[in-house]
Amino acid sequence: MLEGFWIRNFKSLKQVGIGTAFPQFVYVEDPTSVLPFDLGTTTLLTGLNGAGKSSVLDAFSFVSDCYRYGVDYACGKRGGYDTIYSHGGKGVMSFGFHYRQPNESVAATYAISIGYIRNKAPYIDSELVAYRNGKESFPIAFLQNGQKTIRYLAADEQISGSQLTSIEFTDLKHLGLAALESHPKYPVWFSLRNLFENWSTDNFYTDTIHGLDTTQFKPHENPRGYKFSQFINYLSKQLGDETESIINDIAAGIPNVLSILLDNTNRDCPLLSFVMDGISIPIPITHLSEATIRLFSYVLRLEEPMPAPLITFDNPENGLDRLHRWYLAGLLRKFDVSTQGAQLLFTTQNTELADATHPQNVWIFSRDQTGFTIVERAADLIPPPENPNEPKNLENNWFSSMFEDRI
Q: What's phi and psi for 340, nearest 5 deg?
């Protein structure tokens, strides 16, 4: 489970932190600014347009690109380091993730900082994996100035500089996390890599204009791909002959959809057809509206049998009518209490979707006088009850009634 993250000097996110982290390993000017509340199964980011919500999702995608392709590609894809660095910021660009193994007491913080020398390429300035067992936290991996320093500690050992074992690691373009082997004593290391390799980001898009694309993705890319056709192909290979029945079970209840037919004639690109209410002939997925396919993709990603560890949606309400938004809100409520082990991070300005999320898992984004993003937790903005012994009374449509002036 991802319990917290922070982002520094990325676009408008000069210093934003949400959730738990090891204070001594937080690369921000003021560690107390990282709001100390563990992320839940569902986390909502909301606020005015341009407040930095989508930049948070892009920061996750940026780190994923760094992991897969290196910092040159990740920065170049977004216009270069100068374009994404917070203008007026100080220090290097940094990102951190606090992660805990499911059903385990131990946790880890993974942090990277990316520097830049003008007229030269960006590079990895430092990289850290810190591990906590009980009350004490200690680094087990640290990279700086081209050298990787590694020390694996037993539970009863104490860390000191003389105990650290050094190995050469001079590649400043690719993350050490991707190159170093997992250690059996620290399974969270493997889980962190799984997080970066398999999270489902909102780069995902439908590809209906020219039909379903059969182009195969490269081995080091996200196995779910970034296109709807690649995702269906992934599910088909994972689920085998049960794919059609499982997809129908997952999609049961989608407004106006009676059933879904799967044609596996072309194994490289399974084709879907939808049996719609009031229409006698099945409709190929390439003839459905973009909004219907997008809703279907949300359903599949939220309810697939082996879900991604982290799923992100950016304004999923766009293009959906009221009936479809109501259905998606129900899915969000269901996902929030699920035990699949997956997490959802999404943005919205829609009251129906926001009301499906508890205020303790909602973060309000706005801009300060200097133009940088600031974040507040929604539950902290709700007035306390007159009787301090009573819980905060959350009325229906708390989102629209409490934060109308902010949104």
A: -75, -15
Helix (H) or strand (E) holding 7: strand 2-10
Structural domain spans, the chain: 2-199+308-402, 205-302
CATH fold of the domain at 2-199+308-402: Rossmann fold (3.40.50)
The model's pTM = 0.84
Buried b / exposed e along 63-96 (16+ C-beta atoms within 10 A): bbbbbbbbbbebbbebeebeebbbeebeebbbbb
8 A C-beta contact, residue 294 and residue 320 = yes
For every one of its 407 residues, what pLDDT tens digit does the chain have, with 9 covering 90 and above? 888 898 999 999 998 888 876 655 566 666 666 666 778 899 999 988 888 999 999 999 899 889 888 999 999 999 999 999 998 888 889 999 988 776 666 778 888 889 887 767 898 888 877 776 666 666 666 666 555 555 544 445 554 444 545 555 567 888 877 776 666 666 667 778 888 888 877 666 666 544 555 555 555 667 777 777 778 888 888 888 888 888 888 888 888 888 888 887 765 666 788 888 888 888 888 888 888 888 888 898 888 888 888 999 999 998 899 999 999 999 999 988 877 778 999 999 888 898 888 888 888 898 888 889 988 888 887 776 677 676 555 566 677 766 666 55
Q: Judge residue 144's burial from the number of C-beta atoms within 10 Å of its C-beta, 0-12 exposed, 13-18 middle, 19 or more buried.
A: middle
The pair of structure tokens assigned to 183 is: 């250690």
In whole angstroms, give the CA distance from residue 320 to residue 255.
12
Across the chain, how many H-helices and E-strands are there?
Answer: 12, 16
